[in-house]
Amino acid sequence: MTRYGEWVEVRFGAAGGAGGEGGPHVAELVLDRPQAMNAISTEMARCLGEACADLAENRAVRAVVVSSTSDRAFCVGADLKERNSFTDDELASQRPYTRAAYAGVLELPVPTIAAVHGYALGGGFEIALSCDLIVADPTAVVGLPEVSVGVIPGGGGTQLLPRRVGTARAAELIFTARRVDGPVAHSLGLIDQLASIGQDRAEALALAARIAAHSPVGLRAAKRALRAGWGVELRAGLEVEDQAWHEVAFSGDRAEGVAAFNEKREPQWPGE
Description:
CATH class of the largest domain: Alpha Beta
CATH architecture of the largest domain: Alpha-Beta Complex
Strand order of the largest sheet: 1-2-3-4-6-8-11
Structural class: alpha/beta
Mean pLDDT: 94
CATH superfamily of the largest domain: 2-enoyl-CoA Hydratase, Chain A, domain 1
Strand content: 15-25%
Shape: globular
Number of helices: 11
Number of domains: 2
Helix content: 40-55%
CATH topology of the largest domain: 2-enoyl-CoA Hydratase, Chain A, domain 1
Distance between the termini: 26 Å
């Protein structure tokens, strides 16, 4: 376990997943400011960015779950109480920290899963959208309400939401500032897996454990190919995929995977 400032924590092999464990290759990135429902202050954003930078360099990590210690929220977005006292210069000086926080989650090189319950609004929902997969329970309330307070989604929401649900649906949700509960969010494709009440974290860790059982080289390359293929035409996307294939085809993981398959045993991934 590693603490980053007062409100962000990283845990390894966290309890709660399949068999009670996320596993040795699963990291849990914990938002731990429950008294403010994980509202993102300047300091919290700085610590989140720092934690993500360290996770990105950790080659033992194969999957990351982003979770919350608050009973009421995943994250309610920007700390508007802090911002209420900001001058324009102070708001501008905060921006690099918030951008680094969202980018840190988005650019993690391994599969990422958000475990969502309660409110996930504004920047909080953008943290979830920055993950590859979102597991939420029925108490979840998600949305990008920024236009209702005179701004726009600034943590990637205008770009990530259309990629998830299409341009028209994203426009409707952003322009109306509509909040959507867990079951409706699932039906709209805003979340990927609807957990039982109170089980979002456990189910996210179980999913992460299943992912982390596979080749670390393959997982990183597959994520890189998926992300690099966003927004490009098919021919260019296939070139991205081919480059990623060449990176893994001659790796130790590929050799071990084929050998394990033929010998009918579990692979012992060298990760290289």
